[in-house]
Backbone:
């Protein structure tokens, strides 16, 4: 009889604990709902950039009557892109606005957009981006992310602190900057007969000031915003490499947003993608003018140098064995570009 009573007491005690835990769980859920949903986004983009201003306007307009709140950590306050990706993985951040480097580390297939000398102008770029956008979105979904916005930072140029640079091949005698594990710039540096020096983005300015690095590639707007152009003395007047820009959110976080808010966010970002790209292009045009006004020397490579560089890039980078993107995807883009150039 005593054994039976003790068994009943244990069952009652277990049930009591279970009910208590369930009550606490429900209470926590209700408390979190009362607080609303806060989504934290990190980015290297400065708070006053056109990219951030437009994104912020869309988010505020869409979420103003909901309990969803976005917090944008701009200017690299959450660390370099490697660090932000790590924080997304462990839940400290829910998404990020990434440059080409962050894009390739969250969906390596999209590294195909980063290939040097692939796009010749914005018309080609727009047609390709529009045609392949849905495919890029599916790639990101497989990686556990919602691709909310795929736009651009512009085309990259080579900038250097050296005054004695008078052509593309002269860059080989300078110290190249590169992001760690960034294969494209490693291969580009090899074409010039040198190797990159790896420095985190927040430390590049100090590296340029001390002479540890002398040459970097970035969009004109990026050069101004990051203040690297204050030290640059020469720019190679060749927009050689397209830089994409993406806003992504962890898929689980995205699905936790109320459906009506999700649909509205997606609609507004798609509607404004062209406007965002246009603003960035205008910003880069303005930045190029400002760079000229700063007295930085513009060096226009000869056609023979451009041909040499393009052939080197095609031979050593496009279909290299260590490329991060699938070669089949590159072939699809090249087929589309061939049609465009033939006027199809």
Residues:
């Amino acid at each position: 009889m005593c054994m039976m009573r003790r068994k009943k007491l244990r069952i009652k005690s277990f049930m009591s604990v279970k009910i208590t835990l369930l009550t606490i769980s429900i209470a926590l859920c209700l408390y979190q709902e009362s607080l609303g949903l806060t989504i934290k986004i990190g980015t290297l983009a400065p708070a006053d950039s056109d990219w951030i201003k437009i994104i912020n306007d869309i988010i505020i307009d869409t979420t103003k009557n909901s309990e969803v709140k976005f917090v944008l950590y701009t200017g690299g306050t959450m660390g370099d892109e490697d660090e932000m990706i790590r924080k997304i993985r462990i839940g400290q951040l829910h998404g990020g606005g990434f440059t080409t480097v962050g894009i390739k580390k969250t969906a390596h297939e999209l590294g195909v957009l980063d290939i040097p000398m692939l796009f010749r102008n914005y018309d080609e770029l727009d047609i390709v981006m529009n045609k392949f956008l849905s495919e890029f979105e599916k790639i990101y979904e497989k990686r556990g992310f919602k691709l909310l916005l795929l736009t651009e930072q512009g085309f990259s140029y080579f900038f250097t602190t050296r005054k004695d640079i008078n052509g593309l091949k002269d860059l080989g005698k300078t110290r190249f900057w590169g992001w760690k594990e960034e294969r494209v710039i490693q291969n580009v540096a090899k074409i010039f007969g040198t190797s990159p020096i790896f420095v985190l983005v927040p430390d590049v300015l100090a590296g340029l000031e001390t002479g540890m690095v002398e040459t970097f590639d970035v969009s004109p707007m990026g050069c101004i915003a990051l203040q690297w152009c204050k030290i640059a003395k020469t720019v190679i007047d060749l927009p050689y490499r397209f830089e994409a820009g993406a806003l992504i959110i962890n898929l689980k976080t995205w699905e936790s947003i109320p459906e009506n808010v999700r649909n509205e966010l997606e609609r507004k970002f798609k509607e404004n993608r062209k406007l965002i790209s246009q603003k960035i292009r205008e910003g880069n045009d303005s930045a190029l003018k400002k760079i000229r006004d700063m007295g930085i020397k513009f060096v226009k490579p000869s056609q023979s140098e451009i041909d040499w560089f393009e052939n080197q890039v095609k031979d050593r980078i496009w279909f290299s064995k260590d490329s991060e993107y699938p070669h089949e995807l590159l072939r699809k883009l090249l087929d589309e570009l061939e049609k465009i150039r033939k006027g199809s």
Notes: The beta strands are 37-43, 68-73, 95-98, 145-160, 176-178, 196-198, 215-218, 234-250, 297-299.
